[in-house]
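Technical appendix A lists one of the benchmark inputs used to test multi-chain prediction within the project. The record comprises two sequence entries:
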Amino acid sequence: MQARPNLTGWLMVSPLAIVLAVFLVLPIILIGVVSFWTATEFSIIPAFSWENYDFLFGSPVTYSVFLNTFKYAIITWALTFSIGFTIAYYLAFHIRTQTWQIALFLLCTIPFWTSNIIRMISWIPFLGRNGIANSALISWGVVDEPLDWLLFSDFAVILAFVHLYTLFMVVPIFNTMMRIDKSLIEAARDAGASGRQILWNVILPLTKSGIMIGTIFVVTLVMGDFITVRFMSGSQSANVGRLISNDIALLQYPSASATAIVLLATVLITIAILLRFVDIRKEL
Amino acid sequence: MSGIIQDLELVSVTKRYGTALAVNAVSHRFRPASYTCLLGPSGCGKSSTLRMIAGHESVTEGSILLAHRDISNLPPAKRGTAMMFQSYALFPHLSVLDNVAFSLKMKGVDAKERRAKAAEMLELVDLTALADRLPAQLSGGQQQRVALARALITRPQVLLLDEPLSALDPFLRVRMRTELRNLQKELGISFIHVTHGQDEALALADEIVVMNDAVIEQAGPAREVFNAPKTRFVAQFMGGHNVIALPQGHFAIRSDAVGVTPAGSGQMEGHVTAIEYQGTYVSVMSRIAGDQEVTALVPDAAYFDAPHHPGDRIGLTWDAKNLHQLTA
C-alpha cells in the first residue's frame, strides 16, 4: 500500500464518489438530456430540439411564475429571518443555563416530529371561512364578516412557509451565536456600547455566516416547493414547482425537465450571489 | 491621563454567588498612579474583585469608590475604569484600527476623528504598521498590545488587567511585563493586575495584595510582602521561605538567610535530606527537630568549599532579625 499512496486515496473516496455519481450527478444529467427531447400527447421523441426552452422563454407565464416564486422566497426569508434571529438571540444570550437552552431549543423542534403535510393541513380548519380564527375574530367584534383572505391566498402560503421553515433559520443562527465568546460582549459593554449597539456592531456581524446558511436553506426549500403552494393557495397561485408538477401530471416529461433545469440554474445563481457576500467556509 | 491623580478604594466589598462567598468584606485603598498586583491562587476571589471594580459583576454588599465617588452601581463605561480581558476579547471581524476605535464609534465620534485618535493609540503601543490587519493575523504579543490600546483609548483613570500575560509563552511574558510596567510609568495612571504568578507580581508591582479564601491576607510594597510575610499562607505562596515552629511561635525566614555550619555550631541541628544544585545557589534541604523541613540556599562557591551529602549532620544559623513572626 505504501508504494501506491495515490491508489489508497482513490479507494478511500470512491464509495462516496460512487453514491454521489449514481444518485446525484447521473439523474441531473438525465434530466438535462430529457429536457432537449420533445413530446406529444401520447409519445416522447428522443431527438435533440430547443423546443422546450423556446416555449419556456417565449411564454409570459414563465416570467410571472418565476417572479411569484421569488416573491414567496423573499417574503418568507424576511419573516423567517426576523423570527429565527430573535428566537436564536433569546436562547443564546438571555437564557443563562445551558440546561434551559437545550430544553427550549428542543421545544422548538417539537413541531418537526409530525410530517410537513399534516402541519400544513392543520391550518385549513383554523383559517377557513368558518374556522377558528374567523369565529374568534367575529365573537371578539374585531370584524363583522369572516375574512376571505385568511385561507387559499398568498397570506396562507407564506404563513405555512414561515411555519415550516423558521427552524431552518433558528438552528444555524443559534449555532453561530453560541460560539461567540461572551467576553466580547463584556468588552463591548466596557467600551460603552448599549444593548442595541452590541447587537448591531458585534453580534450581527459575527452571526453572518449562520444567517447565510439559514438563508440558503430557506431560499432553496421555498423555491423548490410545490405542495405548500398548491394546498394553501387552493390551486389559485403558482410557483415554478407547480409548473413542473403540472407538466409531470400531463406526462410532459421533456417540458418538465426543461423547467427543472432553468429552476436549478436560477437557484444556483442565487446561492452564488449570496456566497459573494459571506464566507461560510469557517462554519463548515 | 486626567490632571488630578485619583485613588480607588474598596469599602468592605462582598460578593456572593448564591450561598458561596467569593469575596468577603474586602477593604483596601489602592495607591494613586501605582502598579498594583492582586495575587493569589485560583478561586481566591481576585478575579471577582477585579470584575466588580470593572462593573462586569455586581457588588453584593459594600462600595467601590473612585475619586471619592461611589461607582458600585454605575455601568462599566461610566466608571472611569477600563478592562483588558484575559483572552484579550478582540472583535474578530474588525481590523486592529477599528478594534481600537470601537469605544469612540459607540460614543458617536465621526469616522475620521476616531480613526485619527485610534492611530495615535496604536503609535503608543507601536503597532501602526499593522493597523489594517485582523486580530487573527496577529501574534499573541501583538494582540495584547491591541487590547491595551483599545482599553486606553477611553482615557481611564484605572486600567484593570485580568491575567494579561497568561496566554503568552514564557519568553514573551517577560518582555511584555516590562512593556506593561513602562507604559504604566509613562501614562501615570493606576494599573491593577490580577495574576497567580508571584514572580510576575514581584517583577511588576509597586504594591502587592495577596488574597486567599475571599479575603486579603497581606498588602504592601512588593519587597515588604516578600521579605516579611505576615501569615503562613503568604510565606508559602510567595515561595523562598521556611516556616519554622520555635518555642516563641511560628516564624518565616527566607531560605537564603539560613546559613549552614558544621554540626554543633549552629542555632539548630539537622541532618541533610537532599541537595539540589541550582546554579548560583545550592539548595540544602534538611530535617530538624520536630520533623520540620528547612531549606537553606547556600551560594555555590561557599557550598563547594565545604560540601555536604544526604545523611550528614549539620548546624543551621540565622540572624534573629531575619525571623518574621507569623500571625496565622
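The longest strand of chain A covers residues 38-39. Chain A touches chain B through 17 residues (CB under 8 Å). Comparable benchmark entries are summarised in Table A2.
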